[in-house]
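Private note to self, pasted from the team thread so I don't lose it. Backbone tokens:
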């Protein structure tokens, strides 16, 4: 759950853990006094204990409190005292699990791993969208192939575009190349009809000349 998300770089503030509680009763739990004195609360139940037990009580949350719970019972009801015991044991179990998770990974990783797809965004002038796309889409296809991207998506109405891929360095190089194409005629060679581009042959500027992309 949250441990896997933090390992993938998802910026979660705190770890979240869940635990399943069970209950065994003598004499089928007839009477409140009987339940309070004889009920056995089980922590972290398995399938067998769930099938043979009287309660399946799942509790999830972080160190500060409970965020979700779900309860199934096979008896007529639960007393307040029994619920208090179950919640107390669930809290102890949840905090123990969170402690182990924090030992493995205290906070989310600052960078996304190579296996996670990434996106960078930029914006160009609307009248230069054709230069990015190129005749028959040749320029934008060349950019995708040259820089090993998954895709380059352009909004024809706003001029905003997105670069999608896995390698941040190659993605940034593609962003630099796109902005170079937008500057005068330096990046426009190789195309035609006002919408040409130089996806494969255009040189990239040493500095990023456009708006700062958002990772």
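Design output:
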């Amino acid at each position: 759950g949250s441990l896997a998300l933090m390992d993938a770089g998802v910026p979660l503030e705190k770890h979240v853990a869940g635990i399943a509680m069970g209950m065994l009763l003598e004499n089928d739990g007839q009477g409140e006094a009987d339940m309070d004195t004889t009920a056995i609360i089980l922590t972290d139940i398995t399938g067998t204990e769930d099938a043979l037990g009287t309660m399946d009580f799942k509790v999830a949350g972080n160190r500060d409190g409970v965020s979700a719970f779900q309860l199934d019972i096979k008896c007529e009801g639960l007393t307040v005292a029994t619920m208090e015991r179950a919640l107390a044991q669930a809290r102890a179990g949840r905090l123990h699990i969170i402690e182990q998770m924090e030992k493995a990974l205290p906070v989310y990783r600052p960078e996304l791993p190579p296996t996670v797809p990434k996106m960078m965004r930029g914006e160009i002038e609307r009248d230069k969208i054709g230069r990015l796309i190129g005749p028959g889409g040749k320029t934008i296809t060349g950019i995708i192939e040259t820089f090993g991207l998954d895709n380059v998506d352009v909004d024809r109405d706003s001029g905003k575009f997105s670069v999608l891929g896995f390698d941040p360095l190659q993605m940034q190089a593609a962003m630099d190349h796109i902005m170079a194409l937008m500057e005068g005629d330096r990046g426009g060679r190789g195309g035609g009809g006002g919408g040409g581009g130089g996806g494969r042959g255009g040189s990239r500027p040493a500095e990023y000349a456009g708006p700062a992309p958002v990772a």
